[in-house]
């Protein structure tokens, strides 16, 4: 491997390599990533793992130095920041560098060097000055990437979209046992590859899931292409967990052991600004705020960690009286107040509320026509949903848009409060979860008829690219006809948008 630029000089001077390492082992097998941008910096991430399939990624139990540099050009002719970080075995030899002192609205390139090798180059952007004029923001929302049910082709397509950022709404890994996707998911899905090892419950188990997932070059390309905002949903820990409740009703103390291990592993593998849980003593809180000039004010929420347990025992069912209990929380009081303050004082034309679970209260109808709601969504938390809608109504001007994941289907919905449309919700399908899917799930025509606020739905895999300008918001539903076949092309199944000051989605 040829080393060039400043990193080469530093790496060549080390003279010390861990004894347990085989010479020539490439430590950047899990790629690089950037995230959580500010106006003057961002986090850059990597994890040393020359043999990801092995315990500790093939690394010894000792700290290892990692050099990093950031340049204002992709050839690294103008290096604007550099330094040396330490990859600790306690954090799976992951590195989170908080790069500072950069220019607002800047485009940068970064890379790492360690153990005599150099990483691939990643691209990152700082946020623009909040007082600046921003003509356009283009971002993708994606997530739900069950490794066993499809190839990550959608991530390779997303890497080519020239995005200002990617929002990951969670389900980066799935905690299911190996080979059980077919029984658990709502639709039978062919399994095209297998997780190594069974259902994770310990830190090392979860690390192994991330390592295997991150070996995907398509995923690495998507991470290297732009800066991400990473949040987690349920499958980073366990299906439909909330707060200290798991799905099986385990004693909370026991579940917390698992949750803390899972979220520790999430932290170790994401380009996030949180303190390591091992240092802070609490789970990482993926709540974020970011602003693009006067154009876009983004709130990235956490709808798992502080939520009340699902009313009436979870599962799809009619709404029970408990769904109207005033004490029900989706965000928790602190996060709710934070969001209310952020929306009330919004200086931007558009507010993005990026979060995990569906807000529009869709009645999915049972086969015999009875009401059926997803109790693991805002539909089952009516009082909390009304408070969210009141916050949106309290915005000074412009529009709010909600962007959501979790459903493994594309949806375009208007959100109705006190009998009028107050915002719209764009739900992105999955990267792979549930397999190839279909143009429209069986029975969705009836669902649309029963829920007139649903404007469109589609059940292919992919992601949503949204383009935000001072005049309009347009979301493009990018899909592929299959994920169990390699190299499928992506195309736009539909585009839905809203003009500034208007209410209600229209097809573009
Ligand atoms: Fe999912």
TrEMBL record:
Stretches assigned to the Phospholipase D N-terminal domain: 30-126
CDD domains documented for this protein: MPP_PhoD
Pfam families: PhoD, PhoD_N
Gene3D superfamilies to which the protein is assigned, alphabetical: PhoD-like phosphatase (3.60.21.70), Purple acid phosphatase-like, N-terminal (2.60.40.380)
Xref: InterPro entries: Metallo-depent_PP-like, PhoD-like_MPP, PhoD-like_sf, PhoD_N, Phospholipid_Metab_Enz
Annotated ranges, domain PhoD-like phosphatase metallophosphatase: 139-475
Name listed for the protein in its UniProt record: Alkaline phosphatase
